[in-house]
Amino acid sequence: MPSLRDLAELVRAPAALSVPGDVVAGAAAADALDRRVPGLAGASVLLYWAGMAANDWADRELDARERPERPIPSGRVSPGLALGVSAGLTAAGIGLAGLAGGRRALAVAVPLAGAVWAYDLRAKNTPAGPAVMAACRGLDVLLGASGGRVVRAVPAALTVAAHTYTVTELSRREVSGATRALPAATLAGTAAVAAAAVARRRAGDTAEPARRPGWQTLVPAALAGWYSLQYGTAQARVAADPQASRVRAAVGAGITGLPALQGALVARAGAALLGVAVAAAAPIGRRLARLVSPT
C-alpha cells in the first residue's frame, strides 16, 4: 500500500494552497463572502487533487521515460489506484460543491470537473492545452462567485486564467528546456496580469465595488508587486538560461506565487485584510514545495 507521502506526491498536495484563493477571489468580486465559501474552497481543492492524480495516470508511460521517480512509474502507486483516487476525489468535489452552494455551484463545478478531465486525457499535449487549463482556473474563480453576482467576478476569472496560461505554457518545456522567446513572452504576460489585478474601472461602473480610503488602497498594488517579483524573477532567469531546471523552477514559482495575485484581486474587491491572508499562502507553499514538488 502506498504511504501518505506517496499519495501527497501523486496529487502534488502543496500546490493545493494555490486553489482556495480562486474561490475567495470570485466570492469577493461577486459580493458573496459568506458561509458557503469554505465548502466551495474545499470542493475546489478536491477537484484540483483529482486533476493531479488523473494527470499522473494519463502520463504514466511518458513519466516512465522522463520522470521515473514519480509515484506510478516508480511502483509506489499502481495505475488503477491513481485512477480510482482521481475518480473518488472528483465525485467528492462535485458533491461538496453541491452541499455548500446548491444548484448554482453545481452548474459551475460540473463543467469545471469536465474541463479538468478533458485537459488530462485529451488537451494537455495539444496546442489547446494551455487554454483548457486556463479555463479550469477561470471556472474555479466563478465557482466562488456562484453564490452572488457572477458577472462581477468575470474580470478576476480572466486575470487568473491569463496567469494560468503562462504557467502552463512554461510547464510544457519542463523536461526539454525552452527557447528564450517563450519566457520573454510569458514575462510580458505576467506584467499584464499584474496590471490587470490593480486596474481601476471606469467611473460609474457598478461592477467595481467602492474603494476604501487609506492604507487599504495600497494593498492590491503591494500584493501584485510581490506576485510580479516572485514569478517574474524566475521567468527572467529562464530567459537568461532556458535550461529545463530553470523552467521547472519558474513553473513552481508560478504555482506558489499565485496566492499573491489572488490576494491582490480580493483586496481590490474591498477586502484588504482577507487579501493579505490569502496571499500568506504563497510563502507557506514555497516551504512545502521543498518537501513535495508542486510540478
Q: In summary, what is this structure?
A:
Helix content is 71%, strand content 0%.
Report on this structure.
By secondary structure, the protein is mostly helical. Helix content is 71%, strand content 0%. The chain is built from 13 helices and no strands. The longest helix has 45 residues, at 79-123. 54% of the residues are buried. Mean pLDDT is 92; it is low at 202-211.
State the separation between the terminal residues, measured CA to CA. 24 Å
Shape: globular
- Structural class, please? mainly alpha
Whole-angstrom Rg: 18 Å
Q: Number of helical runs?
A: 13
Q: What's the SSE pattern?
A: HHHHHHHHHHHHH
Number of strands: 0
Determine the fraction of residues in helical runs and give it as a percent range.
over 70%
Strand content: under 5%
Largest pleated sheet: none
Poorly predicted regions are: 202-211
Mean pLDDT: 92
Labels describing this entry:
295 residues, mainly alpha, 71% helix
How is the topology of this model organized?
Blueprint: H1 4-10, H2 20-29, H3 36-58, H4 60-66, H5 79-123, H6 129-145, H7 154-171, H8 181-198, H9 219-240, H10 244-256, H11 258-268, H12 272-279, H13 281-289
